[in-house]
């Protein structure tokens, strides 16, 4: 579809420091991403700017330096640690005579390599097509020409319009197939809710050790490696605890400035995080950028509307630190808030199980509601969650409802109702509405 250079495995990296803190990226992380993609870096161009150049992103002088390094090293791809516009990519490719990729395209390529299931492949293709659709406009001038020649003359549709239409049709087709997958996942979630088995989801920065911890807890053999985005497709296993059992979900890792196309495409996968009763936020405590990574994960959780779900911080890889022993830290209310362990060395796993059991036991909301007839639409929401334990009506036509559901689901419903549901809570001791 595109008249572009073929990408190879020999790369020149470009990293620019900007004065704006929100625009900064990490060069070490770019090198890890390139390594995870299977490429080999043969040179690095660095610099600093106040703002990107409109034509080359890096300025004409730095662009000439980049082209010279590409020629000297015989590199066949240039990878920027930033987001480029279609015009910037085109201008740089013409100057360097090789393929130019930005940070988003690199991450999409890694995801395409990691996808194993049918659902994962569909999600990656959807993200790629959405990203590609922004590259049609002003990206390649030949796409603006009409088709010509005998047998090629059509109703006047330009090549650009044809490609746009083909992309829209394919995106629509993939969305329909993903909707079916989403419904299947929703049915599985309802079955787990009916069995009163809480869901605990592993979240964290990529390469924090989530899959290694998942395998250690569940005796599974999920693929785990010292590379970014080793896990892409979500995996669920039953985890036996002293006081019962939970469903443990291993999910894709987060990264700073995670492309919005990926967040949108992986809606069904991220749903496992949004619907969890408890989040285990796995943190690489041996990473120098630990605090920045934690902040990035919290930002993504807020973006997918999962920031209000209870979290337990799991400080992993203590075997890489000196004089740090497995332990549980408690907050002022006596609840576990941090667990220090090493998944690879199997240290502190029993402490994590103890902390999960403590928190999950409190992560269920059991309420009695007096819902007036005019607010009867809330009944459907509780039915969909299979949360209704008992239902009856009083003399005034109010529905007296006993519900039992995940605390996260209750907070989500209360938020969606803008607090109205909380005004229906009844104190069973006095038979009076709380609010």
UniProtKB/TrEMBL annotation:
Coiled coil stretches, renumbered: 164-191
Q: How does it assemble?
A: Monomer. Associates with the 50S ribosomal subunit.
Q: Where does the Hflx-type G domain start and stop, copy by copy?
A: 198-364
Q: Which NCBIfam families match?
A: GTP_HflX, PRK11058.1
Where would you find this protein in the cell?
Cytoplasm
Q: Which gene encodes it?
A: hflX
Q: What is the lineage of its organism?
A: Bacteria, Pseudomonadati, Pseudomonadota, Gammaproteobacteria, Alteromonadales
Specify the protein name.
Answer: GTPase HflX
Q: Which InterPro entries match?
A: EFG_III/V, G_HFLX_dom, GTP-bd, GTP-bd_M, GTPase_HflX, GTPase_HflX_N, GTPase_HflX_N_sf, P-loop_NTPase
Q: What is the scientific name of the source organism?
A: Shewanella cyperi
């Amino acid at each position: 579809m595109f008249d572009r250079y073929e990408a190879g495995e020999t790369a020149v990296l470009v990293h620019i420091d900007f004065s704006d803190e929100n625009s900064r990226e990490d060069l070490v992380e770019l090198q890890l991403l390139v390594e995870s993609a299977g490429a080999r870096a043969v040179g690095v161009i660095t610099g600093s700017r106040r703002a990107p150049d409109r034509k080359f992103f890096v300025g004409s002088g730095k662009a000439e330096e980049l082209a010279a390094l590409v020629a000297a090293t015989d590199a066949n791809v240039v990878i920027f640690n930033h987001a480029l516009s279609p015009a910037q990519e085109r201008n740089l490719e013409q100057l360097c005579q090789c393929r130019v990729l930005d940070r988003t395209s690199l991450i999409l390529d890694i995801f395409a390599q990691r996808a194993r299931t049918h659902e994962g492949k569909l999600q990656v293709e959807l993200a790629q097509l959405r990203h590609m659709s922004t590259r049609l406009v002003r990206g390649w001038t030949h796409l603006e020409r009409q088709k010509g020649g005998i047998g090629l003359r059509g109703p006047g549709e330009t090549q650009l319009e044809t490609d746009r239409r083909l992309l829209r049709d394919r995106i629509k087709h993939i969305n329909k197939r993903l909707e079916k997958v989403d419904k299947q996942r929703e049915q599985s979630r309802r079955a787990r809710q009916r069995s009163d088995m809480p869901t605990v989801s592993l979240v964290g920065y990529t390469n924090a050790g989530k899959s290694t911890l998942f395998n250690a807890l569940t005796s599974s053999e999920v693929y785990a490696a010292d590379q970014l985005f080793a896990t892409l497709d979500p995996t669920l296993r039953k985890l036996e605890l002293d006081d019962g059992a939970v469903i443990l979900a291993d999910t894709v890792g987060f990264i700073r400035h995670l492309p919005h196309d990926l967040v949108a495409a992986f809606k069904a996968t991220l749903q496992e995080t949004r619907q969890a009763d408890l989040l285990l936020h796995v943190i690489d405590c041996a990473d120098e950028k630990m605090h920045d990574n934690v902040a990035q994960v919290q930002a993504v959780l807020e973006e997918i509307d999962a920031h209000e779900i209870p979290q337990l911080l799991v400080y992993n890889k203590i075997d890489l630190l000196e004089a740090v022993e497995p332990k549980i830290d408690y907050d002022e209310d006596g609840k576990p808030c941090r667990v220090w362990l090493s998944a690879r060395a199997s240290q502190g796993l029993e402490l994590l199980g103890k902390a999960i059991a403590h928190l999950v036991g409190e992560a269920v909301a059991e309420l009695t509601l007096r819902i007036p007839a005019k607010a009867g639409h809330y009944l459907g929401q509780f039915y969909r969650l299979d949360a209704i334990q008992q239902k009856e009506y009083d003399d005034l036509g109010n529905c007296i409802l006993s519900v039992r559901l995940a605390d996260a689901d209750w907070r989500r419903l209360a938020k969606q109702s803008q607090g109205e549901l909380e005004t229906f809570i009844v104190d069973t001791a006095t038979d009076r509405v709380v609010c």
